[in-house]
Amino acid sequence: MTDNNPQNPLPEPENPRRRSLFKAVGAAGIATAGASLLPGCGPRIEKEQANLGFAEIPHRLDHRHHLPDDYTADLLLRWGDPLDAFADRFVPEKLDAAEQSRRFGYNNDFIAFMPLDPDAGPGEGDRHCRSSNSERGLLCVNHEYTQPHLMFAGYSEAASIRGTSDQHIAVEQQACGHSVVEIEKTSGGWQPVLGSPYNRRISLTTEMDIVGAAAGDTRLRTNEDPSGMRVFGTVGNCAGGKTPWGTVLIAEEGFGGAFQGDPNKVADEVEAQNHQAFGISPENRNWGNYDRRFDISVEPHEPNRFGWMVEYDPYDPQSKPRKLTGLGRFEHEGFTLVSKPGQPIVAYGGDDDEHQFVYRFVSSGIYRPGEPAHNRALLTEGTLYAGQFREGGAGVWLPLVFGQGPLTEENGFRNQADVLIDCRRAAKLIGATPMDRPEDVETNPVNDCTYVMLTKNRKRAEGDENAANPRARNSAGHVLEIVPPGRSGERDHVSDSFRWNTFLLGGNPNAEDPAERGAYGQQVPGAISPHGWFTNPDNVAFDMRGNMWIATDGCESFGFHDGLWAMATEGELRAAPKHFFGCPQGGEICGPEFTPDGTTLFVSVQHPADADNSTFDNPLHRWPDNDPGLPPRPSVLAIRRKDGGVVGR
Ligand code: FEO
Ligand code: CA
Ligand code: CA
């Protein structure tokens, strides 16, 4: 099933560096944007990072995906593809819950590539995770949410929210969650290994433990689980992270939509406000009719068991996932780690909602390479902080600890469990800076600085701007750079203070409306082409040289496809993006993930053909199969250079 989606031969754009674009995105254009784009935080490695050698693709909007001519994409996994060796061909009309539980889930998002050591087997994650095998590994993929009107015949989008049939809800609950799929690189490209003992689905019926400071708290107890320490399933799985001890972290983001009921009818006022804050309402989808735990009038505590980070071991198919309460409860985009031997683990994450916060977790214990049993406990104990971004580029991490500052009984917190369950309220009280929807927060392994994707915030009113979120009605998003004290490669991520600066502002550098006017690196006149600008940064990855690869979610509002843009973070081409990949219309792109050798870049195309009036019966298009018998299918692509070289070089 490799390469069965023909690439579109694209006209190679002329070299943008040779074009006369100085007027378009040169110093004058940038100056009017009003952003202070400072020089980088690390060593000057411009020659290395500047060498993004691919031929840039144009902004477009059509029913295909697009890559530079000298690249190819293997169509690796699609919704409904079997994971075991004996499954039948995917026929969506025949799909039931049992079938879906053996097949790749819907709306793929985060991707982790976990290498396989050929000499180790299942359960030996500590050996596998030291491997840099780039030809065989486990692809660990989130499935964020379901869209019945694009999955099943007979629904309009409106009808699918309140009127999904029980049978279809049962399928949806198996289509959410996460997949582990062994994959191998063959002479024909990447392929799944059907029937691999590692292949696994995690869904809304997978049993999990609840661990950390909030585990067992009364607010996590339900009729089904009086212990408050055991829960079935995970939902809203957006981005995530990886640990150096071979586990994967998956985020629970938009979990509120899975629950129905009227928060005002919940007797406990704290709980009512809590449910309201996460968008639980009588208008939500009708899962509660089918599965009573999603009805808050029956189980008012069940939503408190979602909104966490989940850690699991993909190398052990029997391992039980754990919800890590120490990392707080909110609409988690993901958490990514900085792991330095002999130091605490530092993890950074964001709460993807308007005016929510950026977080940092510092483990109580020390990371000790080669001691997996010790390391596996590191994310269960530690301190969570929320970021305060001050005027002038200073920043501090404020601890979320019961009894400290305003986090006391007078303000409605009984204990640390309350601080973690009501993390948003706690972070606001201690003075964290409300941000423009924090998505991925990830540290560049080359310069050791941390980058925050802020996707947009149209709800930021005039007068409500702050130094780190400088645009009212921010529709195009921006990227911040966090610079911990110390030198490149040896920065102190444990320090409670940091410097920050604006790395770039999304948007067209020539836009008239300041809310949409982009600002990028300006050290080389004309460094970015008319296709180099983008909007709505969402996910991010760094290649081996420390170049930043940003995946977007929202460019269609600006007239072109979502996709990938790559750029240096240092040197003269710092923050000067080049356009690498474009999605089929209606889709957003998630997950970018490189193999350890950098020769493959995995990407998720989520919700292709998601558009007004586009349904299973009458979709906008049928990417990637373009088969009249199949609907559009969210899919994972493995992008390679045709000559086998390093992607982007
Ligand atoms: Fe699921 Fe934050 O996007
Ligand atoms: Ca995301
Ligand atoms: Ca997204």
From TrEMBL:
Domain of life assignment: Bacteria
SUPFAM superfamilies according to UniProt: Calcium-dependent phosphotriesterase
This protein's name: PhoX family phosphatase
Region described as Disordered: 614-636
Species of provenance: Microbulbifer harenosus
